[in-house]
Design brief:
Radius of gyration: 14 Å
Order of helices and strands: HEEHEHE
Number of helices: 3
Structural class: alpha+beta
Distance between the termini: 34 Å
């Protein structure tokens, strides 16, 4: 993604609904999400629960930020209720 963003920053990377995100923006959002994860002390190998919604590109940012930081992305349905997650974020 970062290599493609460097070569073609204005090309469309994601389309959702009527909106699009170009590669330059996508790379920036992934880097920002990676910085957020590191600020929360997420370490390589840690699991990060992400809400997977087809209507919101933030899942994509979070998923690739996990790869960037070495963490493991754990997608859950966007409609999962909070009490279904235990205190460590595990589905239970």
């Amino acid at each position: 993604i970062f290599e493609h963003a460097a070569q073609n920053p204005g090309r469309t990377a994601l389309a959702y609904g009527r909106d699009t995100i170009d590669y330059g923006t996508l790379a920036g959002k992934i880097k920002a999400a990676g910085s957020f994860l590191r600020s929360r002390d997420v370490q390589p190998g840690d699991r990060v629960v992400l809400s997977a919604s087809s209507l919101d590109p933030s899942f994509v940012y979070g998923h690739f930020a996990c790869h960037l930081t070495g963490a493991i992305s754990v997608p859950v349905g966007a409609n999962i209720r909070r009490p279904a997650l235990d205190e460590r974020g595990r589905v239970g």
